[in-house]
């Protein structure tokens, strides 16, 4: 998979990194350095051992060098990080990474009927838990009340105050 990152420095604001991924899956997105840190933290929580193989790069600042040189260093670091993440056997298959990069993947090969992995429960057990990238309503804006399952239970014989 080929990964290209270009940097778009903006006067008085954070640099925006344009990411283009081509190959088996393709995608295009614009992110800031903080977005990459957040993704890495999410991966680190779920793949602690695997992430040790792919350390997060140090942020270059203008204190270290001229702004244009710092921006170029950060761009190269992020491009290298993404290449390592995508080529890693377990991290490269992560759904959050694919969502972060807005990847579109070729359809998975079809399975044979009766294959044990056809059952939804088996598929769910093999997936990592919720993360900031897979939970709807990140930031506290989601309904916060009852979910559909709770509402259905209330309608169909859940506990009433009259019981």
UniProtKB/TrEMBL annotation:
Pfam families: PX (PF00787). Residues 1-108 form the PX domain. CDD domains: PX_domain. InterPro entries: PX_dom, PX_dom_sf. Residues 137-146 have a biased composition (Gly residues). Residues 102-163 are annotated as: Disordered. It comes from the Eukaryota. GO terms for molecular function: phosphatidylinositol binding. This is PX domain-containing protein.
